[in-house]
Amino acid sequence: TVNCSSCTHMRLRLPIACIALEVILIILFGVAVEYDHDVSGEAGHKTNTTHHDYENEFYYRYPSFQDVHVMIFIGFGFLMTFLQRYGFSSVGFNFLIAAFSLQLATLVQGFLHTIMTGGKIHVGVESMINADFCTGSVLISFGAVLGKTSPVQMLTMAVFEVILFSVNEFILLSLLNAKDAGGSMTIHTFGAYFGLMVTRVLYRPNLDKSNKKNSSVYHSDIFAMIGTLYLWMFWPSFNSAITLHGDIQHRTALNTYYSLAACTLSTYAFSALLNHEGKLDMVHIQNAALAGGVALGTAAEMMITPFGSMIVGFLAGAISVLGYRFITPFLESKLKIQDTCGVHNLHGMPGILGAIVGAITSLAATKEHYGNGLTAVFPKITSDFPASAQAGMQAISLVVTLGIALIGGIIVGFILKLPIYGAPSDSQCFEDGVYWEVYLPNAYCIEL
Amino acid sequence: TVNCSSCTHMRLRLPIACIALEVILIILFGVAVEYDHDVSGEAGHKTNTTHHDYENEFYYRYPSFQDVHVMIFIGFGFLMTFLQRYGFSSVGFNFLIAAFSLQLATLVQGFLHTIMTGGKIHVGVESMINADFCTGSVLISFGAVLGKTSPVQMLTMAVFEVILFSVNEFILLSLLNAKDAGGSMTIHTFGAYFGLMVTRVLYRPNLDKSNKKNSSVYHSDIFAMIGTLYLWMFWPSFNSAITLHGDIQHRTALNTYYSLAACTLSTYAFSALLNHEGKLDMVHIQNAALAGGVALGTAAEMMITPFGSMIVGFLAGAISVLGYRFITPFLESKLKIQDTCGVHNLHGMPGILGAIVGAITSLAATKEHYGNGLTAVFPKITSDFPASAQAGMQAISLVVTLGIALIGGIIVGFILKLPIYGAPSDSQCFEDGVYWEVYLPNAYCIEL
Amino acid sequence: TVNCSSCTHMRLRLPIACIALEVILIILFGVAVEYDHDVSGEAGHKTNTTHHDYENEFYYRYPSFQDVHVMIFIGFGFLMTFLQRYGFSSVGFNFLIAAFSLQLATLVQGFLHTIMTGGKIHVGVESMINADFCTGSVLISFGAVLGKTSPVQMLTMAVFEVILFSVNEFILLSLLNAKDAGGSMTIHTFGAYFGLMVTRVLYRPNLDKSNKKNSSVYHSDIFAMIGTLYLWMFWPSFNSAITLHGDIQHRTALNTYYSLAACTLSTYAFSALLNHEGKLDMVHIQNAALAGGVALGTAAEMMITPFGSMIVGFLAGAISVLGYRFITPFLESKLKIQDTCGVHNLHGMPGILGAIVGAITSLAATKEHYGNGLTAVFPKITSDFPASAQAGMQAISLVVTLGIALIGGIIVGFILKLPIYGAPSDSQCFEDGVYWEVYLPNAYCIEL
């Protein structure tokens, strides 16, 4: 019975997948990876030995890295625990997929980078942040299919998505010279539309929602708020984690902070406004209040000002709540897109908004606004390559991202439809007991 | 029925309040705010362009800021989830009020600062920390009225409290030249007594406590411990977030760390001692163990030594537990002050203790103890302005703070008594279902 | 009845223990402790006054310290909340014991250090980290006896364990010149085997496990995941918190990060493989996924490469899961060692593995691999003291650690067996209600 193709048995599938993937990763790391120069220190790689310790990249970026790390494992993991009987899977599969993706991302991103620079793949705190960013995109897609997939299916999705993410990121940042430090396009737009296409292909027409398993209970909503708040608090670190040192990193964090604050007020306003009794909906608070961070993922390092940031944040919150109220039901009933966490509202639309805001803000990339700092933010802008050309590249980048995400998502969706992954049946969806030992003698039946 | 003046309907009230406030904030930010010089970088504001990136204020303060941010949103938010049926409101309204208050505080604090310096309001990591500090004070007052107010009422309170907080802070720090880096006076004493006066004016004689809603259940107490521990761990960052660089910041964190450790042992000791069966009370552990941080809010940057810090922490824990056991019931029965979270015990009395400790410690502000560092900690102390004068200013500052908090709280209390905010009736207090969509099919009735 | 020797009454015992210990600590701090030179600043201790603020040790280590602090209080505390009726005690006694241990550790570690250097005990961010490390070891032992001891018993254990830990640490690091920055030996091996011996001596033959209290419920497992994830995310900070500045700290964090990622995949693989239905077990995920951090506690600062780190992490995860499945039942049934949290699997075996990996990696401590950085990592290695001698010292250190832990644990176990601590009876084990006021009107009986 272990060899059944349709059952959910994981005793061989999951160990084989995990061990095979990890062994391949270890071999590739052994062959292709070496320490970055300020990781190996005086071991021969360093050309300039007069650097002081405090100039080591570690001190500029490690606190930001840890904030991003918390967003990936606690933020995404707990945000998805809102489902009443799917807490183990939400936080546990988030953990597994993230631990895998960050290793693969290091290799794929590093490989593409070495195409430009030659040599081995260098790792250090910057590669750690970039790998976590790619992982974030995979977890966004995970949110779209949450509750309807097996862990092996998710690992398989991660393999393909990490590769496609890295290719798209390479095209945007290295070939098109787009700016996207916080990943409005590369992370959020890509992850959301990729995931939406996967869940479209995996559409389950008979997924009975009347059994209420696809909803929250009281305590699970409070667990989810742990995820929300960590994402909200640390989003300034996320957007600024990989920007240039000094005033740019400072400015990026500051702009994001204002965008999120304005977004929160907008979220509460529209959540109450759209409810007949004027009651707030936890789903909106948990998700839409974060849209301000997504929507500033491209522009936060630019001179958008707190004023501009707050306008963007306010719009993002409104769009996101409206999405949960009107667009998610439409997607499900008309387009057959079952978006468990509503990633279209938190990452999809706000990601596109962020790309547009980034393109528009690029138009103001002049000496007047940036002074000598212009080259730091926009290294390509010269008299031959004006701000309008940069804005055009930003717009093209959005189109490329959507194209790769949509087409890639459909193809990977069909790969994931193969009956070999031990996916749950419709009645087993949103149910921890399928893949986990669950001990719930009496409380279990009571909480339903 | 939406226009009823006494019902709790929020469909128009909350959106109008949130949108109006946010639009006003955005306009004022557009008019009056600009980036600080190490946020805008080389964009014309910088006078000295030879600074290295690692000298940017961001690297000195951003990790501390993030710790403070976690205290505000996770710490205060989860600390208040101890109520059995008020978790959504505790963490959710904490989120709303904080996101609003930090924006308004930036403007009001910045406006008062520009009175001294002229020009526009400058924002950067220092303004972010100061705004979070002011927000903390508002959340302390929120703790006093928790469960008995509507979100619009809380936003209204925040408007007034942010202004009064900033005026008091300006008087203390800029006019009286008091030292209060961790806010024993400006944040804790002010927030506690302001909130106690508000809840006094909003006194509900018939608030039935026999229904037990104003108490905890098993899981809600564990959620609250998340808040407690984050506040406890990060209090050294809180007290040191805005002190001068280098040894002063180092010393402030260290002193606070020892005070909290001693306070914890004192809390456990007195909690067991005051219970007939010698059993520990979660309310004490969740709150009193933090009093050591409050009580060192003024003196932590001074040469109080670990020895002195531990004595203060030990006393603060004892006072706080005794307050929960004897003073809170007295306040409620005799003075008609219904203090939901016991902020008088965690912030009120320990805040006053902290102010007194700060004044006494200032008396030892001599060259003998501080060496050349004296001017850094006490810039006003000279041969004409001896340490005793500084101590006098510290004592006057406590009196001013209590005066503004008590009078301000009474006035704002009466403003909040107007029947326009959709406040809950007595039977609706401590109940999430009034303002939130709550899905609790069966478990709901079981957990009561 | 308060004076009964066998009852669990804490009304006098706990206050007397806490107050007496804290008063002794305060007196000793007053007599023997002073600020480190970059804490007191210009107050006369400083020899070189030209240092810039950013060179203050605070900025190199405080973010790491805060990560370690979170691991101690949230990480260990919540990891142990998996027990269904022991959440208050897990997180609450963890809090008490940690707050006590870090104070005592500062004194004992500082005293041993002054034997080498003379003068008073100096405190600063480095002493804070070292004290938290010692505390971690005590909390590991706490995990072995969790649910079967009184708080006074735990405080007593902490007194002895802090002293023995510090003596062992002193022998290893100062006398044997071993390297063990992340404490594979000093923290994990020591804490685990010490705790296992204590629980062996305290063996309860009639501890009825059929009542299921020694297991989890649904929500308690999700609470425990908070602890797991914070430990997992911040382990790179733990291992690197006290290493030398610059590339070494950078490398240590990076190696640990890869070890943990590989360990996670290994944990999921073996957890599914060892279950008849292929279902994952939360106990494995919560614990074994962390073994990769333990196993790199010695070698992470060395040139082990990401490749080597991942192999070690993979092995550690496998060993740990196998331990939970096969060795823990064996220890309990054959050796009468009741290891509540399975610390043998998370800290014991992975700690020994880490010590061995450290010894082997030391063999490659050559100029070829380390360049000029060799002396920074291995200050003792010269032509007279080759890498093989260093490896020998590492191996001897493991033997010394095991010896002190095993003998010390047995002796302390017998001390803790005295009938004076108010230990719970067998039927009271794993039960919060013995030492805490618990309000659980109906939900209590339902969740069993």
From TrEMBL, chains A, B, C:
Output the Gene3D superfamilies linked to this UniProt entry. Ammonium transporter AmtB like domains
| Keyword line | Ammonia transport, Cell membrane, Glycoprotein, Membrane, Transmembrane, Transmembrane helix, Transport
Report the record's Gene Ontology biological process terms.
ammonium homeostasis
Record has Glycoprotein as a keyword: yes
Compartment(s) of residence:
Cell membrane
Q: What is its main location?
A: membrane
Q: Which topology term describes how it sits in the membrane?
A: Multi-pass membrane protein
What is the name listed in the Swiss-Prot or TrEMBL entry for this protein? Ammonium transporter AmtB-like domain-containing protein
Originating species? Electrophorus electricus
